[in-house]
Amino acid sequence: VKLTRRLYQHLGKNELSKAAGVLQPYLQEPLEKVDMHGMVRKAIEFIAASLNRFLAAPAFWFLLTGFAGLALYTTCAALQQAFGMTDERRKYFGRAARNIDTLLNIVPSFLTALLLAVSALFVSRARPLRAGRTIFRRARGYRPAYLVWPVAAAAGGLGVTLGGPVRYSADYVEERPWIGPQDSSARLMPEDLARAGMLQYVFFLCVLGIISALLILAI
């Protein structure tokens, strides 16, 4: 939430270089030449991905298998981050890390998408049913494949278009599909990021409530 707030402040003042400096440590693609619309799209995609990576998936494996499952998930996530890129240098070496990471995230990412759709009930101009429809219109070619669900839920819920090609370098462009409801736009503004921040906050409260309820029942 703090990161989203900082990004919104910089983008609201059209400070693209400062916004890129805040977001760049969390992304593998360079952001120097990304415009305002692209920066907002990247930020919302990161929010959707991080809700799964840093909150829903660890919570899922902890509740399912305890600290052993949590340790396994965080270790595999670190390996994927280090070696899982699909560029030519790591395409084959990182295949095992990518496959294990995908297996561990299939169920949590789908649950993340469903919970994002529910969270859209409490966000201005967001629509849960539209989020649900977008989730099930899976776009082929999105990497990692499991993240298409949370990204689609965020795009559908907020009524925006996310995704698109990712340029890692002059020689390597990953062709990702555009994801979003029909007639939505990819020309996003800081106000869209503010709504994504509210969606993130509501999602956090929902996960906290679910974990608390399950722990109380387990006592």
**Mean pLDDT across all residues, rounded?**
89
> Outline, from the CA principal axes?
globular
Number of strands: 4
Rg of Cα set? 17 Å
User: How many DSSP H or I helices?
Assistant: 8
What is the N-to-C succession of helices and strands? Answer: HHHHHHHEEEEH
Query: Largest beta sheet: what is the strand line-up?
Result: 1-4
How much of the residues is beta strand, in percent? 5-15%
Question: Can you walk through the features of this model?
Answer:
- The chain is mostly helical and 219 residues long.
- 63% of the residues lie in helices and 5% in strands.
- It has helices at 2-12, 16-23, 36-65, 67-83, 95-119, 128-135, 148-158, 190-218; strands at 162-163, 166-169, 172-174, 178-179.
- The strands form two sheets. It has a two-stranded antiparallel ribbon with strand order 1-4. Strands 2-3 form a two-stranded antiparallel ribbon.
- β2 (166-169) and β3 (172-174) form a beta hairpin.
- The radius of gyration is 17 Å and the shape is globular.
Q: What are the key terms here?
A:
4 strands, 219 residues, mainly alpha, 5% strand, two-stranded antiparallel sheet
How are the secondary structure elements laid out?
Elements: H1 2-12, H2 16-23, H3 36-65, H4 67-83, H5 95-119, H6 128-135, H7 148-158, E1 162-163, E2 166-169, E3 172-174, E4 178-179, H8 190-218
Antiparallel strand pairs: 1-4, 2-3
